[in-house]
UniProtKB/TrEMBL annotation:
<dbReference type="InterPro" id="IPR006015">
    <property type="entry name" value="Universal_stress_UspA"/>
</dbReference>
<protein>
    <submittedName>
        <fullName>Universal stress protein</fullName>
    </submittedName>
</protein>
<dbReference type="InterPro" id="IPR014729">
    <property type="entry name" value="Rossmann-like_a/b/a_fold"/>
</dbReference>
<comment type="similarity">
    <text>Belongs to the universal stress protein A family.</text>
</comment>
<feature type="domain" description="UspA">
    <location>
        <begin position="1"/>
        <end position="140"/>
    </location>
</feature>
<dbReference type="InterPro" id="IPR006016">
    <property type="entry name" value="UspA"/>
</dbReference>
<dbReference type="Pfam" id="PF00582">
    <property type="entry name" value="Usp"/>
</dbReference>
Length: 146
C-alpha cells in the first residue's frame, strides 16, 4: 500500500517509536518498504543556544542522534529498509521539506490530544497535516503517555 514512509521522532520520547514503526509496517501491507526516521534539532531555531555550541559539539550531537535512531529499530520485516535523517530547524518545516525531498507516500507521527493551549499556539502535527504533499497518519498520545 505505502512503500516510502516518513516517521518524525522526538528522541526524548523513544517509547513512541515502537508504535509508530508498527503502524508504518502495517501501512506497508507486507510489501517492500523504506522507513525514513527523521529527527529535527530545534536548538538553533531562535539561535538561543548558538553561543554555547561550536561546530564540533553540534556534529557530535548529530552523530549521536543518528546512532540513537538506528538503535531504536529492532524486529523489522525483512523487506524493510531504514533511512535515518537529521535536520536542523523548525519541526514542521523540516518534516514537510523532508517529505517532499524524499518523495514519501505517507507521514506517520505522534500528536498530543489538543488542549486549550492549541487554540493559541498551533501544533506541528496540525501544520504538517495542512501542508503535507502526501497522506498523514496522526497517532494520538495522552499527556500522561508523553
Amino acid at each position: 500500500m505505502y512503500s516510502n514512509i516518513l516517521i518524525p521522532l522526538d528522541l526524548s520520547h523513544k517509547e513512541q517509536v515502537v508504535e509508530l514503526v508498527q503502524i508504518a509496517t502495517t501501512l506497508a501491507a507486507g510489501t517492500p518498504a523504506r522507513i525514513n526516521l527523521l529527527y529535527v534539532d530545534q536548538s538553533f531555531v531562535h539561535r538561543a543556544g548558538h553561543p554555547q555550541f561550536d561546530s564540533t559539539l553540534h556534529e557530535g550531537h548529530r552523530k549521536e542522534a543518528l546512532k540513537e535512531m538506528q538503535g531504536l529499530l529492532v524486529n523489522l520485516p525483512e523487506n524493510t529498509v531504514v533511512n535515518t535523517v537529521y535536520r536542523d530547524g523548525t519541526a514542521h518545516d523540516q518534516i514537510l521539506e523532508t517529505a517532499e525531498q524524499l518523495g514519501v507516500d505517507v507521514i506517520v507521527m505522534m500528536a498530543r490530544k489538543p488542549g486549550i493551549s492549541s487554540y493559541f499556539i498551533g501544533s506541528n502535527a496540525e501544520r504538517v497535516v495542512r501542508h503535507a504533499p502526501c497522506s498523514v497518519f496522526i497517532v494520538r498520545c495522552d499527556e500522561s503517555d508523553s
